[in-house]
Structures are given as C-alpha cells and as structure tokens.
Design brief:
Helix 1 packs antiparallel against helix 2 and helix 2 runs antiparallel to helix 3. This protein is mainly α. It has one domain. It contains three helices and no strands. The longest helix is centred in the C-terminal third of the chain and has 26 residues. The chain is elongated.
C-alpha cells in the first residue's frame, strides 16, 4: 500500500502548504493520512486477500508508515 499512496501524497502536500504556517508537521501528517486512506481504498478494491487478520494487521502498519512519512516530509517542505 505504500507504493500506491505516493501519488495521492504528492498531490496533497502542495495543497497543505497554506495550512502549514503554524504546524507544518501536522499538515503533512494529515496529507499522509488522507493519501493512505485513498490508497487503502484502491488496494482493498483490487486485493483478493481480505481476511480480517490481514486487514487488522497490515493496513494500520502501512497507514502509520505513510502518515509518519507525511509528518517528516511536511516538517521539512511545508515551512515558510
């Protein structure tokens, strides 16, 4: 899921720039969370392995990775 969330995150980070004046890391994390939600939706629509154990284990790990990456990237790129 991390590979599919790259495109939405690249699209959302520039839109977060005006919101980043007080908290650039938070704006990046929100962009990462939105990107991972979009990626999870597309991935779930095409994935044949939809057992509860798979979803409960791997989806939150991937969402955490993408949200953390958004926070770190947003902290560096969304500063004034």
């Amino acid at each position: 899921m991390d590979a599919t969330s790259g495109w939405p995150q690249r699209a959302l980070l520039p839109d977060a720039n005006p919101l980043a004046s007080s908290s650039p890391g938070l704006a990046g994390a929100v962009a990462g969370l939105a990107a991972s939600g979009i990626a999870a939706t597309f991935y779930a629509a095409n994935c044949t392995d939809d057992s509860a154990l798979f979803v409960i284990t791997w989806y939150p790990i991937a969402i955490l990775i993408v949200t953390t990456a958004g926070y770190l990237i947003g902290s560096k790129l969304l500063r004034w």
